[in-house]
Amino acid sequence: MVSFKVTDMEQGEWAVLRVSGELDLVTSPVLRQRVHDAVADGRHRLVLDLSEVWFCDSSGVGVLIAARRLLRSCQGSLRLILPARGAADGSHVNKVLGALGVRRLFDIHPDVPSAVSDDSRPLSA
């Protein structure tokens, strides 16, 4: 059994969902539901910390794109944490998003403090 976990916390006005494990066909519905629950609770500033995700397939990417669309539809903000270095020498999610040409759609940061800072600048695409 593959370990997958989503934990949440608040950082000022931001809801942070920390995701760990594999983001795939089996686990992506869990993340999708957690994002929907956060938005339903009125939390429209969301950070997805994906620094501990070591595998992501197309269904995981689909959840990220759907989360972006959902938050934009309610004038919210979505920020992703995808460190350049880390588990297995770089974020697998970062590599997948880059390979698919959709990385530029996301506001990407290296860590939680950067992501929740109002004067932060995203990493370049």
TrEMBL record:
- The superkingdom listed in its UniProt entry is Bacteria
Name a Pfam family for this protein: STAS
Say which species the protein is native to: Streptomyces thermocarboxydovorans
Q: Which residues form the STAS domain?
A: 16-119
Instruction: State the InterPro entries in the record.
Output: Anti-sigma_ant, STAS_dom, STAS_dom_sf
Supply the name of the protein. Answer: Anti-sigma factor antagonist
Q: Give the family, as the similarity comment puts it.
A: Belongs to the anti-sigma-factor antagonist family.
Q: Which residues cross the membrane?
A: none
Return the PANTHER family for the record: ANTI-SIGMA FACTOR ANTAGONIST TM_1081-RELATED (PTHR33495:SF2), ANTI-SIGMA FACTOR ANTAGONIST TM_1081-RELATED-RELATED (PTHR33495)
